[in-house]
Every structure is written in structure tokens, then in C-alpha cells.
UniProtKB/TrEMBL annotation:
It comes from Streptomyces nojiriensis. It catalyses: oxidized coenzyme F420-(gamma-L-Glu)(n) + a quinol + H(+) = reduced coenzyme F420-(gamma-L-Glu)(n) + a quinone. InterPro entries: F420H2_quin_Rdtase, Split_barrel_FMN-bd. Belongs to the F420H(2)-dependent quinone reductase family. It holds the Pfam family F420H2_quin_red. This is Nitroreductase.
Length: 150
């Protein structure tokens, strides 16, 4: 399936629980409830599921620099990359909702130089990312840059 054929307006959301509650609040209030989560900004990333031909939505903590959005594929310190990251490596065209704004973006894994700069920014926003890095070893947690499509 090609990304243009995906029903981006009706993505699959997380399983029932706090993440689903977060996504539903975010969507139903256009980000007024949910953009800030535990004091940090979050966005909703929608990727094309590489195995099931459907759009999947995930809430993520983000940083921002020069109009680009930065996220970490920490997966809570899991030993393998989260599904959303594996999806966007197969299909880098994604949809973002940042607050009330929704738009198409292109995802890519940061270069080693970008990673060095942005890792510090992301752990300053959410210090538990350092715990995730220790738990995930030997896996290196990918840092992802999301740029609005033109």
C-alpha cells in the first residue's frame, strides 16, 4: 500500500489504557487537553503500519528546533525499536498533530552530529530518557527529526 492510499483520518490508536486516554483527549480538544502531559509538550505521530496497511497514531514527547520536531524512539527502554519507529523507517511520510495544527511531515533518523546536539535537549525535557537509554543497551535509541512537508 502506498502512503497516499492510507486513511490518515481514521488511524488505529493505542490499546485501552492511559496512552489511549491521552490520545482521545488530545484529539477531542484539538490539543487543548493533552498537548501538555506531565509538564512536557507532546505531539501525535501517525505512521503507516508497514505490515497491516493502516495508519497508526502514537503520542510522543517532542522538542523543537528551527521548525523541526524532535522525538526519541526510546520505547521505555525496550531492547528493540518501537513499532512506530520501524514503521517510519519503511514509510517516512507521516502525519503530525501538534496542538491544534495537523500536517504532513517527513521523518528521518538524526545524523550522529544532530544526535549529539539533540539528545541533551531531549533529556533536559524528560530526564527519564536517560534511564531508558541505560535499560535499552546495547540498542542505541534513535533520535528522529520530523520536518513539515512543503
Amino acid at each position: 500500500m502506498h502512503a497516499l492510499d492510507v486513511d490518515w483520518d481514521h488511524p488505529t490508536d493505542p490499546h485501552p489504557g492511559p496512552r489511549l486516554d491521552h490520545v482521545r483527549a488530545y484529539v477531542s480538544t484539538a490539543g487543548a487537553d493533552g498537548h501538555l502531559w506531565h509538564g512536557v509538550r507532546t505531539l501525535l505521530l501517525t505512521t503507516l503500519d508497514r505490515t497491516r496497511d493502516r495508519a497508526v497514531r502514537t503520542p510522543l514527547i517532542y522538542g523543537e528546533d528551527a521548525g523541526r520536531y524532535i522525538v526519541l524512539a526510546s520505547g521505555y527502554g525496550a531492547l528493540e525499536h518501537p513499532r512506530w519507529y520501524r514503521n517510519l523507517t519503511a514509510h517516512p511520510e507521516v502525519r503530525l498533530q501538534v496542538g491544534a495544527a495537523a500536517f504532513t511531515a517527513r521523518a528521518r533518523t538524526a545524523t550522529p552530529q544532530e544526535r549529539e546536539v539533540y539528545w541533551e535537549m531531549m533529556t533536559a525535557l524528560w530526564p527519564p530518557f536517560e534511564e531508558d537509554r541505560a535499560a535499552a543497551r546495547p540498542r542505541e535509541i534513535p533520535l528522529v527529526i520530523l520536518e513539515r512537508a512543503v
